[in-house]
Specification:
The complex is a heterodimer. By secondary structure, chain A is of the alpha/beta class. Chain A has one domain: NagB/RpiA/CoA transferase-like (Rossmann fold), CATH 3.40.50.10420. Helices cover 39% and strands 19% of the residues of chain A. In chain A, the strands form three sheets. Chain A has a six-stranded parallel sheet with strand order 1-12-7-4-2-3, with helices on both faces. Chain A has a four-stranded mixed sheet with strand order 8-5-6-9. In chain A, strands 10-11 form a two-stranded antiparallel sheet. Chain B is α/β, with parallel strands linked by helices. In chain B, helix 2 crosses helix 3 and helix 16 crosses helix 18. Chain B is elongated. Classes of the chains: A alpha/beta, B alpha/beta. At the A-B interface, helix 1, helix 6, helix 7, helix 8 and strand 9 of A face helix 2, helix 4, strand 1, helix 5 and helix 8 of B. Strand 9 of chain A pairs antiparallel with strand 9 of chain B, so a sheet runs across the interface.
Chain lengths: 251, 495
């Protein structure tokens, strides 16, 4: 069989769109009334983003309370830490209870604020930062993640509406850190908090346009532990992802 | 495509009704998902909930009306993000695209997160024929795959299986000791599939939504399998129906609220995974290649029919299954194809062809519960009636759903009802017969009660085989009216 290029797979786009138009009984015209959101200019979005930021500033204590409440309803163990010291203390307790020997963490700004590595290594735990370099290729990091009993990450955003932690791609943040180990801990700073999904998607759209059409390869929500109810509607936690998740709110 | 058994509906549903194990399983769904959903509506307040529904419907309606435009935009943005978008007219084309990718990328192991469209395509046997190891990773789908069955519910594919069934299945297929503890069984699946996630070269997912503005694929899961399938292997293929596109990322929030709350009553699922193109150079993980395959596979038939177009607004939450009195008694398999329940009774005939599935639109009492619970306000009963009409008026006599005798009855009935004189005569004669019949002990027609249990004559008795009719009253409305109905309401029911 002659090699087929990927481009010739399936139906050519124009032909497929022609079928669709025929089914709709329409000519080739864009929506008569353009969809309002798609006509937003970057300036419009900037203005809206500014309003969101101001709204959050004015309501921060209430939003943090709501985040804690909704996160707990979503299945997180929530801990409000007054400062870095309390956060570290909580992590150490957790590590003791969880009976583990190795921990992986991402490389995010929040770890400059909370000295996780020193606190856990002092307990005799191996702490690996998932950051690729020549000494640590992807495959060996992956093995490390698999062997770890706990994964610690920061949050790019935390949503008060749903109690979700949002992670975006960056160097030093593997999605696997939050999903593969049996325990996941997310460190949330007050400045990460957003009120709702509407806020989140507006900010992401703004950044998409500011970056000249780059969204980043993923945007992930995490809300509570992994769970299933596929056998007799009985809820089981920890099926493919973590069984236990903790949200430490710094403030 | 998988075997289409929609024409066996009558026999399959009769068998299902008689299955006590299935009834127990279906009762769990009704009490679980549906009750949790109602709690969420109370929490949001019914007014807010209705507002979301209206908004969601508007977004879907707009997008479907301009589907060509949004597919073009999606194509542009998937490509710009470094991914490839492929279009397929039918199942064979879609499977060929996957086969081509599998062969040219030397794929040996594939993990799959739940995809109803891949069920529709019958993709797994195609992959297996190419020597690829295929692993369904959603626990329910994994169970179904081991049992070599098909899903019986849109969001809980293995709900028809009891824990004993699953324990036996695991013993037989995995060679482990019998253990019906649900927690242990979930742990077994975790252990088996954990290795596969890490070894797989290919991850296949469906899509709950695709965002045109950014070229983003959105999947929502609770187990975390979707995230692992789309981030661990070196190739990711997303497969979905062409109707899943929405304009912008900001349209997502409304659907991320409506879908989980309607489906399982959760405020949001544990995971929402949005992927845009393959991994970038700085990313720590993610696939080297991202392909999105959009299939038509009969959807343009719905698009072309204004009466059925709104079936394409469906977000596959399963709320209409959970509320449907018919689904609650027969379960998903009786419907004979991938999409069960009220929405399946509309979608399946359009995808497999109405003549082959003409019984499905009859599988409804038209009570309207499905329309009420639908998060995008799809008028399913109206479409079921439309499909019944299409069948009844089919130019091909053999395709018409009603037997000759029923059509004759309908003509007689029309005659009777359009002539007051004839109707009056019929009621009086019926009443006389009824009085005589009541003199007989163990009267065969009414059994002495207030309902006609078994109408005389074979033609009529077919009608009462599954329904009772009220007996004819002593006095008709007209007769009562002449006497002054307001004084004597109780007369209406006296025999």
């Amino acid at each position: 069989m002659p090699a087929m290029s990927d481009q010739s797979l399936g139906v050519p786009k124009d032909e497929f769109l022609r079928f669709v138009r025929e089914a709709l009984g329409r000519e080739d015209v864009p929506p008569a009334q353009p969809y309002p959101r798609l006509t937003d200019s970057t300036t419009d979005l900037e203005q809206q983003a500014l309003e969101i930021r101001q709204k959050i500033q004015q309501n921060l204590p209430a939003l943090l309370d709501k985040l804690a409440d909704m996160a707990q309803k979503g299945g997180w163990n929530v801990f409000r830490a007054a400062g870095a010291e309390e956060a570290v203390g909580y992590l150490q307790d957790l590590a003791r209870k969880s009976d583990l020997s190795a921990v992986v963490r991402s490389a995010q700004g929040v770890f400059d604020q909370v000295p996780v590595d020193a606190a856990l290594t002092s307990m005799g735990l191996k702490v690996t930062t998932v950051l690729r370099d020549e000494a640590n290729p992807r495959e060996s990091l992956r093995e490390e993640i698999r062997r770890s009993g706990m994964g610690i990450t920061g949050a790019d955003f935390a949503l008060a509406e749903t109690g979700s932690v949002i992670v975006l791609p960056r160097k030093g943040l593997s999605r696997l850190v939050s999903v593969v180990p049996p325990v996941h801990v997310a460190l949330v700073r007050p400045e990460d908090v957003l009120e709702s999904m509407d806020d989140l998607f507006l900010l992401r759209r703004l950044e998409y346009h500011q970056q000249g059409g780059e969204m980043g390869s993923y945007l992930n929500f995490i809300t509570g532990p992994s769970r299933t109810a596929d056998i007799e509607m009985t809820i089981v936690e920890g099926v493919h992802g973590p069984k236990e998740v903790h949200m430490i709110i710094l403030g | 495509m998988p075997e289409i058994k929609t024409s066996d509906f009558s026999a399959a549903s009769t068998k299902a009704i008689a299955d006590p194990k299935l009834r127990r399983a279906l009762d769990r769904v009704a009490s679980g998902f549906h009750v949790a959903r109602l709690q969420r509506i109370e929490e949001a307040t019914p007014q807010v909930w209705d507002g979301w529904k209206t908004q969601a419907r508007e977004i879907k309606a707009h997008t479907i009306e301009h589907l060509d435009y949004y597919l073009d935009l999606l194509y542009k943005n998937v490509t710009a993000a470094g991914g490839q978008l492929h279009f397929a007219n039918d199942a064979k084309q879609a499977n060929d695209i996957v086969s081509h990718i599998v062969r040219t990328r030397n794929i040996k192991i594939a993990t799959k997160s739940k995809s109803m469209v891949s069920e529709e395509l019958g993709l797994n046997p195609v992959l297996e024929s190419l020597g690829v190891e295929v692993w369904e990773t959603d626990l329910g789908e994994y169970i179904i795959q081991l049992a070599e069955e098909t899903p019986s519910h849109l969001v809980a594919p293995a709900l028809h299986k009891s824990k004993e069934d699953v324990a036996e299945l695991f013993t037989e297929k995995l060679g482990i000791p019998y253990d019906e503890d649900i927690y242990h069984m979930a742990a077994t699946a975790r252990t088996v599939l954990r290795d596969k996630f890490m070894q797989a070269d290919l991850g296949i997912s469906g899509a709950n939504f695709v965002v045109a503005e950014t070229g983003t694929l959105v999947i929502i899961t609770n187990e975390g399998n979707g995230r692992l399938c789309t981030s661990a292997p070196r190739v990711h293929i997303g497969i979905t129906g062409m109707e899943k596109v929405i304009p912008s990322m900001q349209d997502l929030s409304i659907f991320l609220r409506l879908l989980p709350q309607s489906a399982t009553g959760q405020r949001i699922t544990s995971y929402v995974s949005m992927t845009t193109g393959p991994r970038r150079s700085d990313d720590e993980d993610g696939p080297e290649e991202f392909h999105l395959i959009l299939v038509d596979n009969g959807r343009s038939r719905m698009l072309a029919d204004p009466a059925l177009r709104e079936a394409l607004y469906c977000i596959r939450c399963g709320a209409c299954l959970n509320i449907c009195p018919v689904y609650a008694r027969i379960g998903g398999h009786a419907y004979g194809w991938v999409y069960p329940g009220p929405i399946g009774a509309v979608v399946s005939p359009m995808l497999v062809g109405l003549p082959q599935a003409k019984e499905l639109p009859q599988a409804s009492s038209l009570c309207g519960a499905c329309r009420e619970v639908c998060p995008v306000n799809i008028d399913i009963p109206r479409m079921l009636l439309d499909l019944r009409k299409k069948t009844a008026e089919s130019p091909d006599r053999a395709q018409r759903s009603a037997p000759k005798s029923e059509r004759m009855m309908a003509r007689l009935y029309a005659k009777l009802m359009s002539s007051p004189r004839l109707l009056h005569w019929a009621v009086r004669s019926g009443r006389t017969l009824q009085r005589l019949e009541h003199l007989v002990p163990f009267s065969p027609v009414t059994k002495g009660g207030k309902w006609i249990k078994k109408a005389p004559l074979p033609l009529l008795s077919r009608w009462t085989r599954s329904r009772d009719l009220p007996v004819l009253p002593n006095k008709t409305f007209h007769e009562l009216w002449d006497q002054g109905i307001a004084d004597r309401p109780s007369d209406a029911r006296d025999v």
